[in-house]
Specification:
- The protein has helices at residues 15-42, 99-102, 162-168, 178-186; strands spanning 50-51, 57-64, 70-74, 85-91, 109-119, 122-127, 133-136, 147-161, 191-196, 202-208, 227-236, 239-243, 250-251.
- The chain has 253 residues and is an alpha+beta fold.
- It folds into two domains: 50-143, Nucleic acid-binding proteins (OB fold (Dihydrolipoamide Acetyltransferase, E2P), Beta Barrel), CATH 2.40.50.140; 147-251, Beta Barrel (OB fold (Dihydrolipoamide Acetyltransferase, E2P)), CATH 2.40.50.
- The strands form two sheets. It has a five-stranded mixed beta barrel. Strands 8-9-10-12-11 form a five-stranded mixed barrel.
- A hairpin with a 2-residue loop joins strand 11 (227-236) and strand 12 (239-243).
- The chain is elongated.
C-alpha cells in the first residue's frame, strides 16, 4: 500500500487503500460501540426514590416545630415490631424548610395538603402554601412521646439534604450534588447523615446538635464528604436522630 495515493477528484479510490480504510473504520466503529455499552453498564441505576410532582394529597397529624418541622402520623397497623407513629419531614416549596409555615403550631393537630417525597421508609411532605388548618385541641394521644433512646454510636457516611435525596433529585448525594445540597440545607431543609450497613442498605439519621438544636449552618462545609460522627441516637417514630456536636465530626478517607 506504500505506493498508493488517493487523488480527491478521482471517482474511485485505489482498491488496496479502500480496503485498508474500510477495515479500520469498521474496527473503530465496533470499539466505539463497545466502549459506549461499557460506560452505560458501569453507571449506577437510579434510586427508587420518588417525588410525586403535581400530585397533592391530604394529611392529618401533629405538628412538631423542632428541631426541624415534622408531622406525626398514627400508624394504623402498628405492632410490637413496628412503631405506633410515623414521623415525616416537612418542607416548603423550592429549597426552603417549613419553619415559617408551621410557626406557632407546635403539638397542634392539623390538616394539610402536600406533595409526597419518599425513599425506602423515609417520607417528606412538601406543603402546599396556605393549606394548613388546625383541627382542634390536642388529645391525650397527641401528647404521648414517641422517642426511644438507643445509645451511643460511631457511624460513617455522608451528609445529604433530605429533600433532594429522598426523591426530588437523582442523584441526590455525593460530590455532583454538593452545591445543591448546600443550598437546600442553608435554606432550612433538614440535613441527614446517610450511612450504609455491611449489606449496603441505607440508614438515615436526622442530624441535630447535642442539645437537640438544628445544625444547618454548622455542617455546610462538610456536605457530601466522607465523615465519621460519634453521638447519641434516638428513635422518633420512623425517624432516627443523631445528636452530636458538628465540631467533633471527623473527615475520613
Amino acid at each position: 500500500m506504500k505506493n498508493t495515493f488517493y487523488i480527491g477528484y478521482q471517482k474511485k479510490m485505489d482498491r488496496t487503500l479502500a480496503t485498508f480504510l474500510r477495515t479500520r473504520i469498521l474496527a473503530m466503529t465496533i470499539v466505539a460501540i463497545l466502549i459506549s455499552f461499557l460506560i452505560v453498564a458501569a453507571q449506577h441505576p437510579f434510586s427508587s426514590s420518588f417525588f410525586e410532582f403535581g400530585t397533592h394529597r391530604s394529611f392529618e397529624g401533629i405538628i412538631h416545630e423542632s428541631p426541624y418541622p415534622t408531622l406525626l402520623l398514627t400508624q394504623p397497623n402498628s405492632s410490637a415490631q413496628l412503631p405506633a407513629f410515623s414521623r415525616v419531614y416537612l418542607a416548603n416549596q423550592g429549597k426552603w424548610g417549613a419553619q415559617d409555615l408551621v410557626t406557632g403550631l407546635n403539638e397542634k393537630r392539623v390538616h394539610l395538603k402536600g406533595t409526597l417525597i419518599h425513599h425506602h421508609d423515609q417520607t417528606m411532605i412538601e406543603i402546599v402554601p396556605d393549606s394548613i388548618e388546625i383541627m382542634g385541641k390536642p388529645t391525650l394521644l397527641d401528647k404521648i412521646s414517641d422517642k426511644e433512646i438507643l445509645g451511643r454510636f460511631t457511624l460513617r457516611g455522608e451528609i445529604v439534604d433530605s429533600k433532594c435525596y429522598l426523591g426530588v433529585m437523582k442523584p441526590g448525594n455525593l460530590k455532583p450534588h454538593r452545591s445543591c445540597a448546600i443550598r437546600c440545607i442553608s435554606g432550612g431543609i433538614p440535613p441527614v447523615f446517610l450511612v450504609r450497613d455491611q449489606t449496603g442498605t441505607a440508614i438515615y439519621f436526622m442530624l441535630v446538635h447535642t442539645d437537640g438544636s438544628t445544625v444547618n449552618k454548622e455542617v455546610l462545609d462538610k456536605v457530601a464528604e466522607p465523615l465519621e460522627i460519634t453521638g447519641e441516637v434516638e428513635r422518633s417514630g420512623s425517624l432516627l436522630i443523631l445528636k452530636s456536636d458538628p465540631a467533633t465530626y471527623k473527615r475520613i478517607g
